[in-house]
Write a structure and sequence with these properties.
Layout (H helix, E strand, L loop, with lengths): L1 H9 L1 H48 L5 H11 L8 H23 L1
Helix pairs in contact: 3-4
Length: about 110
């Protein structure tokens, strides 16, 4: 509190310098926190993706050629025009295919 009062008593120039250094420090802290959060997210995604990759490697050889084709086509689908319903339709088709694959895996 005393340092703030001293800076304020020095005038507007000192306040601007102090505010600038505080802003730089806050930006550095935010950048460090963001880097840490990004690393945690990457690690979490890698942990969650591993079982899915293992499951796909087991199911993949049992998929028919047509199922592999459709799975690849859905993953790389890009519409010609922005269409909000196309993403929904592609997601539904992908879910149906996943359900079908899961049913085959249980058999």
């Amino acid at each position: 509190m005393e340092s703030t009062v001293q800076i304020a008593s020095l005038g507007p120039g000192a306040i601007a310098v102090a505010a600038g250094s505080a802003a730089r420090e806050a930006a550095l802290n935010a950048r460090e926190n963001l880097s840490e959060a990004a690393a945690m997210i990457r690690e979490s995604a890698a942990r969650q993706a591993l079982p899915l990759k293992n499951n796909l490697s087991e199911i993949g050889p049992r998929m028919t050629r047509r199922e592999r084709y459709h799975l690849h086509a859905i993953r790389s689908y890009r519409g010609r025009r922005p269409d909000p319903d196309s993403a929904k339709r592609a997601g539904n088709a992908f879910r149906r295919l996943q359900d079908r694959i899961n049913r085959r895996a249980r058999q």
